[in-house]
Each structure stands twice: as C-alpha cells, then as structure tokens.
Amino acid sequence: MGKSAGSARSCPGTFARAWAKAVSGTSYLPMTQAQLEALLQRLTERLAVAIQSEPFDLRIGHQVGAELVQAHIASAEGLGRTIEVIQLRLVRDLGLVADDVEDRMARLLATVATGYARALRDRTLDEQESIRRAAMMARAQAERALRESEARFRHQATHDPLTDLPNRTLFTERLAAALDTADRIGVCFIDLDRFKVVNDSLGHQIGDLLLVSVAQRLRRALGEHLVARLGGDEFVILVERTAGTDDVVEVAEAALAAVSEPALVDGHELTVSASIGIVERPAAGTSPMELMRAADSTLHWAKAAGGARWSIFDADRNRQELARYALSAAIPAALDRGEFYLDYQPLTALRDGRVLGMEALVRWRHPELGVLRPDSFIGLAEETGLIVRLGAWVLAEACREARTWADESGDGPFVSVNLAVQQVRRPGLVDEVRDLLRRTGLPPGRLQLEITESTMMSTAEEPVRALRVLADLGVRIAIDDFGTGYCNLAYLRGLPVTELKVAGEFVAGLRAPAGRTDERILASLVSLAHALKVTVTAEGVETAEQAERLRAIGCDAAQGWHFGRPGPAAQHLGRSPALTATG
Ligand code: C2E
Ligand code: CA
Between 20 and 30 A from 268 (CA), which of 26, 57, 167, 583? Predict the structure, then answer.
C-alpha cells in the first residue's frame, strides 16, 4: 500500500471546522470555539497520519479517542458525531488516497472508539478515586476542625477566662482522679486578705489585674502543682502524692511568698497577703467535697488568726465547731419546744442585805446534752443573729416572772436582763420594751437592762437615743462587766446609765492581801460613780471578806455566790441573810 496525500485538495482546517460544528453543544466544553477548532485540527492531522501509516498504527486512534475525552468531548453523542464526521468526511476533505482506505477507516474508527471508551472509563475511575480521596480529606479536615473546636471548648469549660488558670471544674476532676490513685493528698485553699478593699478603693479593673498578677505568680512559683482559681479571690493548689503535712506546708509557704511579692498594677504598687487552709490526709475514705469543706473551714481559722498565714486542718477543732454550729442551728426549734428557762441570781444591797434585784440568766434544758450554760450557746447565737429571737424571749419571760415577785405593798426586786449588742442596735427595741411593760404590767423601774461596756462603746448615736428614751420611761440601764473594756467615767456622763456592774476580775483582787491597790481603784471608782448619780454593783463576790470590804468602800450592791447562786427566783425571794451572817 503506497501512501500519497492529495496535496492540493488537502484541507484539515475545513474538516476540523466541520468536526467542531458537529460536536459543539454535545457537552459542556471549557474552551472557546477557536480553541476547539485548533484542538480538532491537531487531531485531524494525526488521523490523517494514522490512515496512511504503514503498518497501521493502532495507538494513534487510541490517543485521539483519549484526547477527545480529556478535552471534555465526552458524551455518547459527542462520540457518535465524531465517528460520523470522520467516516463521512475525513478521507474526502483531506483528499486521502490509500489502497485499502475503507478497511483502514473502519479500523481507525474502532481504535478511536476504543481509546475513547478506555479514557472515559479511566476518567470515571480517576474521578471516583479523586472523589473518594476528596471525601476522605474532607472528612479528616472536618474531624480535625471538630477536635480543635472540642479542645477549644473544653479549654473554655475548664479554665477561668480572667487568669486562664484551671477552674473549679477541672480542679474537681483532677482532685477526684488523684484521690483514686494517690496514697495521700494535700490541698491548699487560698484566699486573698482584704481583697475587697482593693476592689472598692481602686476599682474592679485594677482588682482584676491584681488577680491576674497573683495567678501568674502562683503558677510561676508552683507550676509543678495544679493551681486553680475557684472564683473571686479564691485559689486552690492540689498537691498530689504527698509524704506528709510538711510537703503541703512547704507549698503553702511558697504560695504565701509568691502572693506577697509587690506587684505593679496599672501604675499602682500593690502588696497583698493571703490566708491558706491546708488539708493533708490519706486519699482513702475522703471525697472531694469533704476535703474542700475541710480546707474551707481551715482557711477561716487562718483568717480569724489575722490572715497572712496558713492554718492546718485539725479534726478535733473541726468537730467542736461542727457541734457548735449544730447547736446554734437547733436554737429556733428549742425555743418553740420551750427548752429554755431562766435562773435568777440576786443583786443584794450591801448596806442592809436586801435583795434589790435579780439577774436573769438563761439556761437550755437540752434533750440530749442536759442543762447548758449560756457560755456554750450565747456566743453562737450572737454570731448567727439568733440572739435577737432568743433575747426577745428572755426579756418577755423575765418581765412576766418579775411581775409575780411583788409583795403585798406591790413592791418587789427589779429584774436585770442581759441585752446582746444586736438587740441594742435593733430599731424596734423601745417599742418592744414598752409593749412588754404594758402587757405584763411590770413597772418600768422594776426592769433593768444590762449592756456590756463594749456594746456601749461600739454603739452609734441612734441606739443611745433609744436607751435614753427607755431611761426616761424609768427603765434602769446598767453597764455590765465594767472595767474589762476601755470605758471611762467621763464618757459615761453622756450616757443614760443608772448602774455600773463592776466585773468580777476587779472584785477577785480584793481577796488577796496585796489587793490594796485594787481596793483603792474600786473606792475611787465608786465615789466617781456616785458623783455621776450612778450606783455600783460588784459582780463575782464569793466571800464574806470581799463583801465586807466592798461595803466599807461604799459599793452599793453585790452579786455572787456569797449572796446566792443562780437558781429559781423563789429561792431568793424574802431572804436576806447573807450579809448579816458575816456580822
Ligand atoms: P454575766 O452577765 O457576767 O453573768 C454572770 C455570770 O457569772 C453568770 O454565769 C453567773 O452564774 C456567774 N457567777 C455569778 N456569781 C459568781 C461568782 O461568785 N463567781 C463566779 N466565778 N461566777 C459567778 P452564767 O449564768 O454562766 O452566764 C454567763 C454569761 O452569759 C453572763 O455573764 C451573760 O453575759 C451571758 N448571759 C446569760 N444570760 C443571758 C441572756 O439572757 N442574754 C444574753 N445576751 N446573755 C446572757
Ligand atoms: Ca450580766
């Protein structure tokens, strides 16, 4: 077979244009018409080579088919039209001459179709593969993004936004985990001293900056331990795996030192101190909550001792405080059940041994603990504010009982009632007393209110005015425990006071032979008090000798075991033997 091309009639451009026309519109082509024609012209030239090559080269047809697919002429229709246009026009338009041209044309078309089909299949596979790969990548990316946002979210959920320290959640998690794995464990519960003053005087912004600075210092000093911020000015350090309290004390001391470094905050040089509650114990048998509660109460011991120090948990002390707390919580129900009652102790005139008045002393007949003296619950009731309710009951009960002490002439000893500072400061005191006197019918002069020297000193204008109203009504006002505080007589002049009760400590001095100084002090106190028209009662008088000396220096009255122990009122009524008995 000879190969000869009709050179004059050969026009690949015409054929390529016809081809382009045939396929355009059969599928979306990402090229211009001119680019399409240029491509097809190139393929046309190759087809021409193929039809004439000797021997017949299968690969050219395959390549042309594959290139068509690559060029996105990849629909069934595009292939059909291509086959058709080649078959009808290629030989004619290019003026090709070959012996077995028909046979060659058939083979050429078959190879183009085969190349086309293969390429299409490969492309589909490639596409599937790349889709698969893209899907995998997309999934991996999505997972990574999810993990990152989870990590971010977890960080936010477990860290304090201000200082970026771990927060309570993370601390509690780590504490719980450590309790499961460690033998012994320690916690330092830190609270800044007087942080509120910084906030109030310099503003919250400076307060926040100071917290950030404290957090940084703690982290720097104690980086090996978990340092967390629980909120406000409270931080906590977890000491995992301790060998004993010493390990945790060391951490606490490092923390105190770190906190107390002066810090420059927004131009202010600030120095703060902290209080730390330390708990160190075996991990077995303790829970995070219990541990934190213990650390919290221990922290308060450090605060109560003045701050800028650590305090270590003490189980006995804690038990006592819990018992005290439980006791105070039981007061309201005990009032409702009538478990309180009053004992009375006489205030006896030193001149003639007459019972001038009786002090009401509250007792609690506790169903389990027996009779409790006021020292074991009054302090608590004052701390919790329950004293207001308890005190109101005492006052009412004392007035009610005192009303029954009058003799035939209607006269009788006054009742002397202790008032706690909260009762004195309460705005309703005047109305309460007036109302009680009216309801019980007790003459005002037979009620004495005992107010401690320290209460008097710490009391503002308003309560003093209330006491003056009561004094004007005729109610007696006594200063209790006089001599234990810093009250002076000049100050007393401005107060509506009718009586001074001199503390037992002064009276105790009268017993010793060396008590002459005390005696002289007491004597001048008595004469000054008398000059102010204030009577003097000595407390804690235990012996006849003390009573005699007090009488000799002009003291008006006395109270104490020598004259009668606290007990039911009836026990003291109509008796006045104590003084006379001594001669
Ligand atoms: P206080 O007002 O100084 O009461 C006198 C306390 O001294 C009483 O103790 C009394 O039993 C005790 N005492 C009396 N004579 C002697 C003595 O010769 N020697 C010694 N060593 N002690 C003597 P009590 O009854 O235990 O009361 C303790 C404190 O409880 C009272 O001290 C008073 O401050 C407070 N208190 C008692 N009842 C009430 C109350 O109803 N309200 C308030 N707010 N406080 C009360
Ligand atoms: Ca008293």
Answer: 167
**Which sequence spans correspond to the domains of the chain?**
12-130, 168-313, 345-358+388-582
How, if at all, do strands 355-366 and 414-419 pair?
A: parallel
Instruction: Give me the chain's average pLDDT, please.
Output: 90
Find out whether the beta carbon of 391 lies less than 6 Å from any atom of ligand 1: yes
pLDDT tens-digit readout, 305-331: 999 999 999 999 988 888 888 898 899
Query: Per CATH, which fold does 345-358+388-582 belong to?
Result: TIM Barrel (3.20.20)
User: What's the 348 CA to ligand 2 centre distance in angstroms?
Assistant: 14
Which pLDDT band, with edges at 50, 70 and 90, does 492 fall under? Answer: confident
Right CATH number for 12-130 from 1.10.150, 1.20.1260, 1.25.40, 1.10.490? 1.10.490
Per-residue confidence (pLDDT) for residue 577, from 0 to 100: 45
CA distance 35 to 39: 6
> Angle CA(365)–CA(572)–CA(556) in degrees, nearest 5?
115
Residue 8 has pLDDT above 50, yes or no: no
Q: Is the CB of 361 under 6 A from ligand 1?
A: yes
> Atom of ligand 1 at shortest distance to CA of 481?
3
Residue owning the nearest CA to atom 42 of ligand 1: 418
Residue from 341, 343, 359, 361 whose mutation best tests the ligand 1 pocket (most atoms within 8 A of CB)? 361
Cβ of 560 closer than 6 Å to ligand 1, yes or no, is yes
Does the pTM surpass 0.85? The reply is: no
Give the neighbor-by-neighbor strand order of the sheet with 184-192.
Answer: 226-231, 234-240, 184-192, 274-282, 309-312
